[in-house]
UniProtKB/TrEMBL annotation:
SMART domains named in the record: WSC
Lineage: Eukaryota, Metazoa, Chordata, Craniata, Vertebrata
Protein name, entry field: WSCD1 protein
Listed Gene3D superfamilies: P-loop containing nucleotide triphosphate hydrolases
Domain WSC: 142-234, 245-342
Pfam (any one): WSC
UniProt xrefs under InterPro entries: P-loop_NTPase, Sialate-O-sulfotransferase, Sulfotransferase_dom, WSC_carb-bd
Name of the encoding gene: Wscd1
GO terms, molecular function: sulfotransferase activity
UniProt key word Ion transport: no
UniProt record similarity statement: Belongs to the WSCD family.
Keyword field: Repeat
Amino acid sequence: MAKAFFRLQKFLRRTQFLLFFLTAAYLMAGSLLLLQRTRLVIQQGSRGTPANQALPVPDEMTRVGIIDPRTLQSPQPGPRLLVGMDALQEPTLDQRHSPHWLTSRNSELRQLRRRWFHRFASDQEPLQTAGLKAMKHTTEHKGTYIGCFAHDSRERTLKGAVFYDLRKMTVARCQEACAERAYSYAGLAYGAECYCGNTLPAAASKPEECNSECKGERGSVCGGVNRLSVYRVEELRAGVRRRRNVVYRGCFRAPENLTDTFPASLIQPNLTVEMCSEFCSKKEFPLAVIRGQECYCGYPTGRFPLHDGTDGLRCSGTRNASGTAEGAYCLVYQTPVQDTRCTDRKFLTTKSKVFVALSSFPGAGNTWARHLIEHATGYYTGSYYFDGALYNKGFKGEKDHWRSRRTICVKTHESGKTEIEMFDSAILLIRNPYKSLMAEFNRKYAGHLGYATDRNWKSKEWPDFVNSYASWWASHVLEWLKYGKRLLIVHYEDLKQSLIPKLKEMVEFLNVTVTEDRLLCVESNRDGNFKRSGAKQKNFEPFTQEMKDLINRYILTVDEALRGRNFSGLPREYVPR
């Protein structure tokens, strides 16, 4: 009996060792296979997707990498994008630019976009690190600490400009931002939010309640939850005067009752523009209105919307010796103060019943449209992606899951059938493909606010980029026209030219009611912090004739598809160059 038990025990020990060995071998083999696949994906991503793989073209045309313009001399009208479109047969070589061909290539184009998006996100890390190093020299300026004060996001104590940097905010950064705009006080909250104003908050709090560390500076306090760390703004450097950005808005007919229209006023002999602007800035109003010796401060309102400017000669003919207007007309100036009537934003308190997309081709102004929608509705917008740079600038919906339904709409560049049918409705933003391609190429090499260099434009990647992404611009629109359930078509150029009417359409489509004053506030802050800076090349034409022929064919295809669905066609400026 003992011998049998001993044999069984010996067998079990051998089996246990064998199982351990097989498990280890299995894990090692799986790890090696995973490493091999990862290496392959990285190599493919670093090389990029060749244009002739993402978008097949006839063999005789691949020698130059783009479509031969000779094939476009006699374009045949493509089929309309209607119900019968699914029954189209496979296109021949001379039909490679029809709507059916474009939509059939869409999955490959979306894969191209995804690979490029993730590669761009990884490329931004060195840029952000460099920006953090460049910021360190600004920490010398601290200003005078006043104390910790209560902060209500709905009724702010510092009612001037607002800035967000959820990654690199420092006390000095906030101080300098407020000083440049002529504010007296700078307050920081939540470790990343900066508020400016000229009136000290009344409700003081306990010092220990300001306990949030600055996101960009360890050891420094940047307010807390509903608490402001307030500093008195001082000069940036000795001998350097603050920048007074007073912008002339034009000559306008004065409202009938100036006292009822504007909440603050001043009568001053020998009144000058600088005196009136200084007075209104201290009162924290964005407009300085001058009529004779009278200075009025306020906001754009329904009574005074600043839409119907008159001939400047009407004001120049009634100016006095100080350069101010008299009589029925007045001069209007924009002070450095930001109009903050529309800067408060929040997530939806209850989940939205309607899932709305804000869809566009990359470079079509989606970020700008989100800025307008957020300020008009007061609700954050979401994103199918996560862009850390946008999150750091105040787009808090970037970090919220795109399916949470806590945002008013969701940004997306996707255009596959599955991705489109997930949404109940969509605002489809369309921009001139020439402008869109350049904007997206700029974003790739210089981020959301910069410009690509001459070296970038002259590289081999630019023609490959145009060849790949031009057809994506067309297929994006065609896919949403085909699979979208309820669409509002918005052309970027129309939104830019007629902001208030188009923004009203968008807000009504989102089923949100807003006041006219809030829309006028959005108009005052129309650019936000997303206008490209740096040296912009004048009379720069990066498109060759072959590129133009290619893009123009796609323009005609999209225009016909829009009209076939009873939408207005593309704006006239899209018409082939």
